[in-house]
Design a protein that fits this description.
The complex is a heterodimer. Chain A is mainly β. Chain A has no helices and eleven strands. Chain B is 0% helix and 54% strand. In chain B, strand 4 (31-37) and strand 5 (44-49) form a beta hairpin. Chain B starts with a strand and ends with a strand. The chains are: A mainly beta, B mainly beta.
């Protein structure tokens, strides 16, 4: 299994809603990532988990709350989002977290989020 | 923060023509990776370059890493319609869990 699975594929939410995005991989990867991608823009790093611990937070607003319940799962909890948060949210994983250059990112197909 | 500049933003070519996209960093990179994102899809890993001056080939694709490890290029020979998509470079500096993507080059190939 070389897939990163994200659910849901599409999500529409109001600014007062609470929702969660889910990501799952069974490749034994110990680093997992959340990226945000606006239309016609590159992916922007949001969070990195290494061995289920948050290692990088790229100054993301607190209305985005990541969670890594175990080595295979990654969630992104959403609360009180703004319309400008509408984007494609991509989950990715990579094999190692040691200081090695032999990493590559495996991306999921993303959740297309619309905030009304 | 670290940035990778990528040009051109768009490239329209006739099928069979060559295509090149360039990435440049103001500081020395640890390594650079290249990804392809098809329309409506997600980024897919193509290659990683680690060594100064490294050149790697994948069929019609040639990837280069500069001697100073500050720039990289992707060259496609004789483009095909299946090459359509956006090509991103992604640079890594000291922290191997941080991948910063270039702005991307969107390639359109006319049959």
């Amino acid at each position: 299994d070389t897939e990163v699975t994200q659910t849901p594929k599409h999500l529409v939410m109001g600014m007062t809603n609470k929702k969660s995005l889910k990501c799952e991989q069974h490749m034994g990867h110990r680093a997992m990532y959340w990226y945000k991608q606006k239309a016609k823009k590159p992916p922007e790093l949001m969070f990195v988990y290494s061995y289920e611990k948050l290692s990088i937070n790229e100054s993301v607003p607190s209305r985005f709350s990541p969670e890594c319940p175990n080595s295979s799962l990654l969630n992104l909890h959403l609360h009180a989002l703004q319309p400008e948060d509408s984007a494609l949210y991509l989950c990715a994983s990579s094999h190692k977290t040691a200081r090695t250059p032999n990493e590559k990112l495996f991306f999921g197909s993303g959740t297309q989020l619309s905030v009304l | 923060g670290q940035q990778v500049m990528q040009i051109p933003q768009y490239q329209h070519v006739q099928e069979g023509e060559d295509f090149t996209t360039y990435c440049n960093s103001s500081t020395t990179l640890s390594n650079i990776q290249w990804y392809k994102q098809r329309p409506g899809g997600h980024p897919v890993f193509l290659i990683q370059l680690v060594k100064s001056g490294e050149v790697k080939k994948q069929k019609r694709l040639t990837f280069q890493f500069g001697e100073a490890k500050k720039n990289s290029s992707l060259h496609i020979t004789a483009t095909q319609t299946t090459d359509v998509g956006t090509y991103f470079c992604a640079g890594q500096w000291n922290n191997f869990n941080k991948f910063y993507f270039g702005s991307g080059t969107k390639l359109n190939v006319k049959p």
